[in-house]
């Protein structure tokens, strides 16, 4: 099941992660889920995209792969960005379909 949300703005998360110290990662994930209006569950993978929503940033590849990802596992998707209307529409429709 895909739960998608377009976020117009997001507050900084609680911790800064380092290459060797992941303290606070779960708390930040739960906070991101809360801010995005998603079910808070540390066990559910979250895919976050922060980008201009344009083809040369790889959005064409992401939209093609998303159907396969959704079919094979439970995942939550958070998208922060604006750009080409077709990509904005794709993510809005994905959010409405759940």
Summarize the structure.
Residues 1-10 have low confidence and may be disordered. The protein has three helices and three strands; from the N terminus they run βαβαβα. It is α/β, with parallel strands linked by helices and 98 residues long.
Outline the structure in words.
This protein has helices spanning 25-35, 59-72, 85-96, and strands spanning 2-6, 46-50, 75-80. By secondary structure, the protein is α/β, with parallel strands linked by helices. Strands 1-3-2 form a 3-stranded parallel β-sheet. Helix 2 (59-72) links the parallel strand 2 (46-50) and strand 3. The chain is globular.
Count of distinct strands: 3
How much helix, percentage-wise, in residues?
A: 25-40%
Rg over C-alpha atoms, rounded to the nearest angstrom: 14 Å
Please report which band the strand proportion falls in: under 5%, 5-15%, 15-25%, 25-35%, 35-45% or over 45%.
15-25%
Provide mean pLDDT, rounded: 80
Please give the largest β-sheet: 3 strands, parallel
- The 3D shape can be described as globular
Q: What order do the helices and strands follow?
A: EHEHEH
Terminal CA distance reads 7 Å
Strand order of the largest sheet: 1-3-2
Low-confidence stretches: 1-10
Number of helices: 3
Look at the helices and sheets and give the structural class: alpha/beta
């Amino acid at each position: 099941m895909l739960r998608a949300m377009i976020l117009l703005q997001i507050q900084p998360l609680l911790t800064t992660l380092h290459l060797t110290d992941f303290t606070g990662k779960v708390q930040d994930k739960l906070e991101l889920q809360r801010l995005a209006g998603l079910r808070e569950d540390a066990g559910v993978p979250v895919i976050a995209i922060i980008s201009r929503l344009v083809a040369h940033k790889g959005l064409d590849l992401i939209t093609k792969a998303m159907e396969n990802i959704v079919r094979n596992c439970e995942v939550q998707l958070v998208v922060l960005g604006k750009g080409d209307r077709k990509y904005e529409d794709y993510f809005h429709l994905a959010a409405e379909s759940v």
